[in-house]
Amino acid sequence: MHGSASSGWLLVALCALTGTYCLVRMRSGAEEQRGAAGGEALMGFGMAAMAVPAAVFTPPAWAWPVYAAVFAAAGLHALWAARTGAHHLHHLVGAGAMVYMALVMAGSPGHAHGRGGSGVPLLTGALLLYFAAYVLLTGVRLVPVAAVAGGGGGVRAGRGGRPELARACRLSMGIAMVAMLLTL
């Protein structure tokens, strides 16, 4: 993506760590949690790969259509899964945003991710508004969960079963999505 190398590396680290935690969450016992965590892990690692600074690695021309295809498939999966839960609609929007960013990067001069001024401003703005609202809503929802979880007396959840950590992951990926969209 566009931007400075230091912010790019911070974004890579944030997304990769979030993707890793989501992989751990996939070991949860609930089928619904495993599916959501798998989609979030894919999103985290995909965002990390897209955020690598152009000075370090410029993907070949064929990489952007591959990103678009992978996230289009993830979007179709989210659309199918949305019939059982509204959270999958967020995954659908996220996958759509990743497809959009990959297509913008494929169309940018030289297929590099260090140039600016590309993309459809109205679509980019709509995605920015959606993810900014998502970040604010997720942040508000995180506060009460952290206060309740810290109160003690409850049963400690197993590996990957802590809802406040899952929300924190979603919050960090939402912030990363806003940062990536801002650089388009």
Protein architecture, described:
- The protein is mainly α and 184 residues long.
- Helices cover 71% and strands 0% of the residues.
- Helix 1 (5-25) runs antiparallel to helix 6 (163-182), helix 2 packs parallel to helix 4 and helix 5 runs antiparallel to helix 6 (163-182).
- 32% of the residues are buried.
- Residues 111-115 and 152-157 have low confidence and may be disordered.
The gist of it:
The protein is mainly alpha-helical. It is 71% helix and 0% strand. α2 packs antiparallel against α3, α2 packs parallel to α4 and α5 packs antiparallel against α6.
Low-confidence stretches: 111-115, 152-157
Domain count:
1
Q: Which class best fits the helix and strand makeup?
A: mainly alpha
CA-based shape? globular
Q: How would you characterize the largest beta sheet?
A: none
What is the typical, i.e. mean, pLDDT?
A: 83
DSSP helical segment count: 6
Quaternary form: single chain
Percent helix, as a range, is over 70%
Compute the separation of the termini in Å. Answer: 7 Å
- Helix-strand topology string: HHHHHH
Q: If you compute it from the alpha carbons, what radius of gyration comes out, rounded to the nearest whole angstrom?
A: 17 Å
Sum up the structure in keywords:
184 residues; mainly alpha; 6 helices; 71% helix
Helix and strand topology:
Blueprint: H1 5-25, H2 31-51, H3 63-81, H4 87-107, H5 121-149, H6 163-182
Helix pairs in contact: 1-2, 1-6, 2-3, 2-4, 2-6, 3-4, 5-6
